[in-house]
Amino acid sequence: MADMFKQRAKKLAAERAPLAERMRPHEPAAYLGQQHLVGPEGALAGVLSGAEGATVRNMILWGPPGTGKTTLARLVAERSGMVFEPLSATSSGVKDIREMLDRARLRLGADSQGTLVFIDEIHRFNKSQQDSLLHAAEDGLITLIGATTENPSFEVNAALLSRCRVHVLKPLDEAALSDLLDRALAEGVQVKNVRTDDEGRKALLRYAGGDARRLLSAIEASCDLLAVEPADARVLTPQILERAVGERMLRYDRAGDEHYDLASAMIKSVRGSDPHAAIYYAMRMLAGGEDAKFVVRRLAILASEDIGNADPGALNLAASAIQVVNFIGLPEAEYTICQLAAYLALAPKSNSAARARITAHKVIRETGELPVPMNIRNAPTKLMKDMGMGKDYHYAHSYEGGFYPEALLPNQIEGTPVYEPTDHGFEARLKKRLAELEQMIRDSKEPE
Prior knowledge:
Blueprint: H1 2-16, H2 19-22, H3 35-38, H4 45-49, E1 59-62, H5 69-80, E2 83-88, H6 94-111, E3 115-120, H7 127-139, E4 143-148, H8 152-155, H9 158-161, E5 165-168, H10 174-188, E6 195-196, H11 198-208, H12 212-226, E7 235-236, H13 238-245, H14 257-271, H15 275-287, H16 292-307, H17 313-328, H18 333-346, H19 352-367, H20 382-386, H21 427-445
Parallel strand pairs: 1-4, 1-5, 2-3, 3-4, 6-7
Helix pairs in contact: 6-7, 10-12, 11-12, 11-13, 12-13, 14-15, 14-16, 15-18, 16-17, 16-18, 17-18
């Protein structure tokens, strides 16, 4: 009797699950997109086809939301005969990991069955959590698949990353999303006889922006509105979609030309000192579904590239804005982005840091790896000191004004100007200071 109730509960839960969950494929053939991974010549083709000798390796699946990371991990587990053990990066602690490893050890010893541990948003795991998986992943006790929307080079522990292969998942293209749309209306939605017109289909695909989950959620919400209509009037139009998702539909493709056009317009508006245009284009991107982190990162780059030392506070404000955006998210983070865009647009401008970067790289390319002058080399040992390293180094703080006039560039490029400050904003003071220091160096070389 208990088993019967469990089966009934399981069936009802499946029927009430969100459309995105009900549409999750259970066979590789039904998996949409990512042909570079699952196609005949894909990196995971052998595992998914059950080819003899194909081995599942520890891996990181890196890609935007709704590109099939979780589904792919489940398919790998099912096709390889391993038990799927999901962990939450936000709620699973070291204790949970240890308990999971105990189960994996028992399973392997008793039944010779492997365990595939899936960690969604693995970038949210702290160092101790990631470290606790290291030995188990390396020794073969578990096979680890981590999923992340963030660059694993920056967000995943280097030791753990070195034990994993990174597979990049791409936003789903229009063909894959269109196929998913047709399947959902034919097989997935609980409201029958729903169809789209041409404009409705275009609006749905544009709204999805390569995200399957976003597409299915929009379809489900639209079908809820159409449920009260007669069967022959259930047409999913742009107007229905707009009502369903509760926001204005904008022509914005996060992976297409509009993405780059609006980002370029925002940057050039800030550079051109127009706060009105800068804020307008920033909000256009966000209203179209752009990631707030992308917008604030572009502004932070600009704070150094186009403002720099003309207003050193610009970079501090940009760094603070990044923290705020990461902490509070949208929509409230829009206030912070507007504040930052306005400040940067009205700040004095200087591209001297950008020019210095170009000059330094040019000098390095042309002159190669020049030896560091002996007087400013590191000399932590007696042998190195005996070799002359660090000899005649002048500790600047021991001299008047905290400065000793000496050449510090390699001899071959001595006197080469790399940083050339402008007369704009605070940088004018730095330019004056640099001129004074260079004059002191010239004076020190003149014969008395």
